[in-house]
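Lecture 7, part B: from sequences to assemblies.

Below are the input chains for today's worked example.
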Amino acid sequence: MPSTVSAVSYDEVAVGTEIGDRIFTLRRSDLVRYAGASGDFNPIHWNERVAQEAGLPGVLAHGMLTMATAGRLVTDWAGDPGAVIEYGVKFSSPVVVPDDDEGAQVSVQGVVEKKLDGGRVVVNLTVRHQGAKVLMAARATVQLS
Amino acid sequence: MPLNQDFVGRSYTSEVPFQVGREHIRQFARAIGDDNPLYHDVAAAKAAGHADLLAPPTFLVTTIPGSLGLPTDDPALGLDYSLVVHGEQRFTFHRPLVAGDELVVRSTLASIRPVGRNEVLVTAYDFLTTSGELVAEGTCSLVSRGTAPPR
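Predicted structure of the full complex, as structure tokens:
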């Protein structure tokens, strides 16, 4: 079965169209859940002692969890995540997740950066935590209808 | 210690296929806080044109054998895991991944190059079904901190 198509119409988006602006919260419990689901049990993602011994500022969110979280802006916009045909990021700054109920806030903004042939668009994501860009060159290509 | 360049170009293929399971997709979707019905409800996924539950795009990372996306844990590579950070990750889909797919992952250590004092290891992946259909491709860059050869 080929890639599916988003219900979003190619003709109704333009370069600069904003696809969303949201804040996601990551808590320690989310990191433990992600470790279990992904199989990445590196203790720097759940153990303060190990994180400090490794010279880190604290327990860090898995880069892949940050990538997945940012990607939700795109898949929610597309409706059908099967319409995402490419997704790539560079990890530029870690997300430190404190041992409290507030957790870490990650803001995600998405803008249509380019319209390609064949009804495809490139969405550029801006992903920040405490003002720092945690992902760079975060881009997804989506098949629109 | 710089990494061992002899490993560049080596390919590894997973020995046991990775079966994409419904409950694993649901568990992964819950772990990323995503209640998209196409990840949870088989009828909704089929109504949207998928053969079964759809896997989230980054679910692919769970199918890669080994740790940190590295295809080998051979000590001769010279990698100290405590020095490694994730640099980049990319996935390209030829079609969406769905429950029931059985994937064989072919991983190739594409390059090891110095960037300043660090070294960057790039691994390229082909995600194939057991019948040989290329479902997706991917790349992962790992940064090995401070191991570049002195210049």
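Note for the exam: The domain at 5-19+61-144 of chain B is CATH 3.10.129.10 (Thiol Ester Dehydrase; Chain A). Keep this in mind when comparing with the next example.
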